[in-house]
Amino acid sequence: TIEELIEQDQRTNQLLTVENDVNKLLSILDEVTRSKRFELMNTEEFQTLFNNVMKVKPELKDIVLGLREKQNELMGLYKSMKHGTDVYESIQY
Amino acid sequence: ENGPYSNLLPRRSTNTGLPESNHSKSTELLSNILTPQEENVIREFALKVNDLQNNVPIDNTELNELYRNSLYLKPKLSQELNETFNKYEKFMELNDKINTIMKLYNSLLDERIERDSLQHQQFQHQHQQQQQQ
To answer: I want to staple A29 with a disulfide (CB 3.0 to 4.6 A). Which of B1, B52, B77, B104 is the partner?
Structure first.
């Protein structure tokens, strides 16, 4: 249904907002790798970022599969439309 | 709207398929998403064109109407296709980054535990030596 489509779209956009947290987390882990300051992994900020990212992880596979399916569906529609308009226009003019 | 060429212009479909109460709040979101009704317009148009190619008798007025509506939907379809490709790439990138985070985190945790365990062993060894002395 349309409501489901809208809900899906909103959820996808919402999940993309985790990108900032992912980048921050990568940057902290990079710092820990270089400096061996393991205590940086014990901070509240690190734990919050890590939890935010881990919450999203299980949903990613379904989202990627859903987007791939949507891509195929839209490509099919695009080809149908292109074929239709090409034939229609060649006949009409 | 009633100009001499108005019949040639694509017509916006007013039926969104949404209940009236949800109509206003969803209108903005719907401008980016192809509705099932709109998808059907494209499929129906392609089917009618196939009929036309196969010399099946068709209603020309209906075909023209479907053509106009399909043309109207073309930019929306193209935009949604673009957005879907972009989102797919972003999610793949996100997935790669999260996998990297997991690997880094696990390896750092291993390293830390190994270091702590080594320190503990050293401490115990020193303690034993002190006791022996």
So the answer is: B104
Whether B34 and A74 lie within 8 Å, measured CB to CB: yes
DSSP annotation string for chain B: --STTGGGS-------S--HHHHHHHHHHHTTS--HHHHHHHHHHHHHHHHHHTT----HHHHHHHHHHHHHHHHHHHHHHHHHHHHHHHHHHHHHHHHHHHHHHHHHHHHHHHHHHHHHHHHHHHHHHHHH-
Instruction: Please tell me the distance in Å from A38's CA to the nearest CA on chain B.
Output: 7
B58 part of contact set with chain A, CB < 8 Å: no
Supply the pLDDT for residue A40: 94
Question: Which residues from chain B sit within 8 angstroms of residue A50, using beta carbons?
Answer: 105
ipTM over cut 0.90: no
Residue B133 to chain A, least CA–CA distance (Å): 35
Q: pLDDT per residue over B79-103, tens digit each?
A: 999 999 999 999 999 999 999 999 9
Query: What are the tens digits of pLDDT across the range A55-78?
Result: 999 989 899 999 999 999 999 999
A-chain residues within 8 Å CB-CB of B35?
2, 5
Considering the entire predicted model, what is its pTM? 0.75
